[in-house]
Amino acid sequence: MRIKVGVIFGGETVEHEVSIITAVQAMNAMDKEKYEVIPIYITKNREWYTGEMLRDIESYKDFSLIKKYATNVVLYEKNGSYVLQSKGMFKRVVSDIDVAFPITHGTNVEDGVLQGYLQTIGIPYVGPNVYAAATGQDKVYQKQIWSNEDIPMTKYVWFYDADYKRDSDEVVKKVSKLKYPVIVKPATCGSSIGIKVAKTKNDLTDAIGEAIQYDNKIVVEEMVQNLKEVNISILGNYERQKVSIIEEVLSDQDFLTYEEKYLGGKKGKMPRKGKVANVSAKRAMPSKGMLSCTRKMADIKEKTQKEIEDIAIRAFKALGSSGCARLDFMIDQKTNKVYLNEINSIPGSLAFYLWEPKEIKYNELLDEMINIGIKDYRKRSSKTRSFDSNILEGMQNVGVKGAKGKLR
């Protein structure tokens, strides 16, 4: 009997289209003898749809077809099963699923919000839990945790958009503690969205203005000189971890841009926040995802390789991550010093290209991720989460007003 895997993707996020690409790749790669794949697409308006057509990348070029031919559903627990039920006057159970597989990118879906919903209804799910997802999405949170673990990172400062609007001079003074050039980022966005380099103090205003379009928390980091960017993937959970090969992603820019990651290097201005939510799939959706990048096996010394592997595992464990994550590193080629940049808890294309050189096929990687998710669920279920006793049973003759008074 095949396991029913509900692949959840999309959502109200600037990385909506990237999530579709990753999810379609994964759904088509899953072992059809082991799994019955059930697509669950979340629109930019937060509506949930299911239907076989959602496995075809062409379906997303015209959303009216999805509304017409896919089924608008809700996911909830019913009599011990996890069901997708149609909405509207004549409700019916369209399907049930055994395990959820979030393949989402960005805020509102990858950042613990979706994981919290899945955990609340009690369904097994693949990937990071609420805490790991939240810290994995927030570049400030992860840095604060990693600094406590002596993970090497570049110097940085952070602030809220409200701080900058209230006293921009004070924020600029705070940033002046760093050495230029600096890189300015929205703290909770991915896919290089909203990122700009400020080579001088005069560039900083534009860079902050761009980042504020996408987030209320901003992080500014010193840039590594003589930069080489490398990536590694970790597969596992807090108990066991495997490391992938280390690759070097090549870029003509100061950092790997959205266009290089997903549009094969084609240049184009990123739309502003309000317009991103309405960008058409036909115009903004390539078919290869992170495979569009120009990359090669990292040319690094064995000592540096071991250092990156060790840091990656420690960083992964420090956040309590699970599933398949990608960690991005920076190397100063002159000093050979290694810095951890960030973690991607649910990376583009699920970083399968980093595992193929280790003779782990994409379907095998997905299989292992699902197994890890089920094991994580069993471990969560084995812990005490509630008590049989009810402390309210002994509270007699206490009205609502009295109860409020006594509980304050």
What does this protein look like?
- The chain is an alpha+beta fold.
- The protein folds into 3 domains: 3-125, Rossmann fold (3-Layer(aba) Sandwich); 136-151 and 225-256 and 293-378, ATP-grasp fold, B domain (D-amino Acid Aminotransferase, Chain A, domain 1); 156-222, Dna Ligase, domain 1.
- The protein is 33% helix and 25% strand.
- The chain has 14 helices and 16 strands.
- The strands form 3 sheets. A 7-stranded mixed β-sheet has the order 6-5-4-3-2-1-7, with helices on both faces. Strands 14-13-12-15-16 form a 5-stranded antiparallel β-sheet.
- The longest helix is centred in the C-terminal third of the chain and has 21 residues, at 362-382.
- The termini are far apart.
- The model is unreliable at 258-263 and 268-286 (pLDDT under 50).
Helix content: 25-40%
CATH superfamily of the largest domain: ATP-grasp fold, B domain
CATH topology value of the largest domain: D-amino Acid Aminotransferase, Chain A, domain 1
Number of strands: 16
Overall mean confidence score, pLDDT: 88
Strand content: 25-35%
CATH architecture of the largest domain: 2-Layer Sandwich
The shape, in one word, is: globular
With helices defined by DSSP (H or I, 4 residues minimum), what is the helix count? 14
Count of distinct structural domains: 3
Structural class: alpha+beta
- N-to-C series of helices and strands: EHEEHEEEEHHHEHHEEHEEEHHHEHEEHH
